[in-house]
């Protein structure tokens, strides 16, 4: 059973018509969570069907983050044994390939976030996880690329701590697809644009945008990102032109892949954001 | 006045009472032990010179089977060998004494010099104990124990072997030897066999209902060759007052002399304990009897079924009704605490309890089963809910199983009565909300009950109610079965919306949250959340005036349903009152859990247009309306964790955490969860200003500049300082779970 939190209280401020409830919340545990990461949604093709919430193409890298968060009020020692795939066990729950085995390839360092400070933890070495701190490991997930629905569970195998690790999120569910249409090619190119915007340089973004437009010239996203890079570089005229082009493609429905496949509210939100960004340019 | 200690007072009272009358009380007296088999006990001895004496005791052997018991007869075989060297033989003597060390008989014979002599005493088949041969009654004075050996020889060598042959007469001499320890007759008719020496009484106790009558009849055998004997049936009350006695004269050498109609009638208005004694009182006479004791007006023993669910299992045989757990049993809950049995046990072996069948008399005591045959246990009307709880497991099999020997060639599980007069079988509960009718049958007698007991028998809820625990594991008390059926009407103070989309039975059957089974309270609204923020959890939504349960991702299905296991392939069909809401699209939705994704897909403030999203229902074109969880679309909710990092001062990048991030994330989680519960955004005017007027986590557009939405000069702004960690009553009035 979770322990009782130390402090909770209720103050009713009737005159201000407020209800104030304060105090820390939730069970005190070492929570383990696995999340699919570095994934940029589906815009140009049909959405994955539930229970899949992610769709990958056969040449795409599947990245997961594995996080342990300390929600208790004291430090706990985390003890990896060798900081390798042995730390976690992968269980195949569903796969189009009989006997399918998934494999985690861990990055050599984990990312420790404690008190707003980020540091690295070396593989295989025990470390202390302070109250309200978390450690995150990045890993790539390797498996077959046969089209279909996949569901795996990732559980601690040899990784241990001085209190039980509580698995909160251990499932990864996704749909694997083949790149066999122009829309799929455009989607792959769009994802590369976003990834380069997040992690690359202006040059790599430009290269990715070029590729996307080569596959799908009506991509509003390509012009949106181009505008954002230009704005970041204080190239206002270039940014204005790019935003305007993106707005036009969306407003006229020329970006048919976006209009047909993306969530309508998100498309509206994107259009609204573009207009605001355009207005805000000096 | 000085008071004596209770024990002292009781002792004084007992002494005073004893001078007036004797009041006897006793628990069920154990029947005298009877091995029920033929046995031999061998004693050897050898010596040179004499005269010599020696002694052997049957009671020196701890093995009860090497002693004489009231049901035993015996005979003795003696072999003695004189080995010289003198020219005289040896006079060998064997004296038999009883358990009171009183001489009973002496066997003497001569052994010629350098020869062996042997003999059996008495000659077979006239065993001692049979037909008036001084032994084999209920009393120690008629039980063999001491064997004294002696010889008169001088300068002789002698060796001997004594073999005591014990022959059991099962069922003989079961009566008590005093009124304080009677044989308690719990079942009629009972026929007693035995032997009475002079002035010996065997005692039996019956409880007569008002108007009830005990009748004694049978046959008597007087083995004396020359004297008649006199048999009496005596009836005493609890104070040992002789109520009545009746006589029979049995002539000498009579075998199976019949007598009938010795009786006592309880004419009083209350049940009455009556002690029935069998007595014969002619010196030197021995009487064998075969007497039947019959009680009229007493209902025959009934087959009863009990449940033992304590940990560890320990059923109180002397008070079975009081120890019966069938009324309080709730499947999958520990009887003592109400806490849930572990998930792994329920998924694999199941929670083990014990069904106990036994015949009980009118006083509720367990008695020997009349007749012969096994008890057949069986299960009927067994539920087969999917999984083990509303949101956990997929097994569609039966929710109760019996573990024991299946009957050969027929249905059910056949179990024999044990030495404690009970027949037991293990019952395995494999669902926190399962139910079944358990039955025990023996011949024409049967007993059954439903588990869990459901007094009103309409809503599947246990009569005993169920314990509810808060998120910290503290017991919040027992929810009673109020007899209602279907959906419930959970309420929140100051809020017009009722219900949480979970029926009474679903709240009882319960959920697995954070690896623990919990049952919920049908008067409170329950909200289930899976958050990908493993440290922050539900953030400031913990302040909601509903019960917020945090789930792991294996505790809700791929479609976010929180109670997908409503189907029942077994008895009773699927759960009545399972919630289906009608969406604006015309489709239907079951109640859903709330999901808050940690969304790092959107990294640009321009794309994000905020810190998070919720896919609220589109009730008309471009009109998205917050509503209860079941109306929220498959994209659920998300918090743009990267966007928060980008916007929060003082580092405006995607990777560097800032002091504001955690607080802002907790608020945003609460904001999105609010949208999952029907709460609307709270606008403030003028928008995009930075006055310290925010009073809720549901506020939006709380930035000083139009775009980008942060303070251009990097100075502290409203989003980081002035948004509180709570909801207002306006928000809470909108709160809608169903």
Description of the structure:
The complex is a heterodimer of chains A (about 280) and B (about 750). Chain A has about 280 residues and is α+β, with helices and mostly antiparallel strands. Chain A folds into two domains: about 30-175, Immunoglobulin-like, CATH 2.60.40; about 180-280, Tetratricopeptide repeat domain (Serine Threonine Protein Phosphatase 5, Tetratricopeptide repeat). Chain A is about 30% helix and about 35% strand. The longest helix of chain A has 18 residues, at about 180-200. Mean pLDDT of chain A is about 85; it is low at about 1-25. Chain B has a five-stranded mixed beta sheet, with no helix packed on it. In chain B, strands 18, 19, 20, 22 and 24 form a five-stranded antiparallel beta sheet that branches. A five-stranded mixed beta sheet of chain B has the order 32-31-35-39-36. Chain B is mostly beta strands and about 750 residues long. Chain B is elongated. Chain B has four domains: about 40-170, Sandwich (Jelly Rolls), CATH 2.60.120; about 185-295, Jelly Rolls, CATH 2.60.120; about 300-450, no CATH class; about 530-545 and about 595-735, no CATH class. The model of chain B is unreliable at about 1-30, about 705-710 and about 710-715 (pLDDT under 50). Chain B has nine helices and 39 strands. At the A-B interface, β2, β3, β5, β14 and α1 of A face α5 and α9 of B.
Question: What is the gist of this entry?
Answer:
Chain A has 282 residues and is of the alpha+beta class.
Element layout with pairings:
The complex is a heterodimer of chains A (282) and B (738).
Chain A: E1 8-13, E2 18-23, E3 30-37, E4 55-57, E5 62-70, E6 76-79, E7 88-94, E8 103-114, E9 117-122, E10 127-129, E11 134-142, E12 148-156, E13 160-161, E14 165-169, E15 171-177, H1 182-199, H2 202-215, H3 220-232, H4 236-251, H5 256-261, H6 264-280
Parallel strand pairs in A: 3-14, 4-15
Antiparallel strand pairs in A: 1-2, 3-5, 5-11, 6-10, 6-13, 7-12, 8-9, 8-11, 12-15
Helix pairs in contact in A: 1-2, 1-3, 2-3, 3-4, 4-6
Chain B: H1 6-20, E1 39-48, E2 52-57, E3 72-85, E4 90-98, E5 103-111, E6 116-121, E7 144-151, E8 156-168, E9 183-184, E10 190-196, E11 200-208, E12 213-222, E13 229-236, E14 242-250, E15 254-265, E16 272-280, E17 287-296, E18 302-308, H2 320-323, H3 343-347, E19 351-360, E20 366-367, E21 375-380, E22 400-403, E23 413-415, E24 422-429, E25 436-442, E26 445-451, E27 466-469, E28 475-479, H4 504-509, E29 511-513, E30 516-518, E31 526-531, E32 547-550, E33 581-582, E34 588-589, E35 594-599, H5 605-608, E36 612-614, E37 617-620, E38 623-625, E39 637-640, H6 641-647, H7 661-675, H8 718-721, H9 729-734
Parallel strand pairs in B: 9-11, 31-32, 31-35, 35-39
Antiparallel strand pairs in B: 1-8, 2-7, 3-6, 3-8, 4-5, 4-7, 10-17, 11-16, 12-15, 12-17, 13-14, 13-16, 18-19, 19-20, 19-24, 21-23, 21-25, 22-24, 25-26, 27-28, 29-30, 33-34, 36-39, 37-38
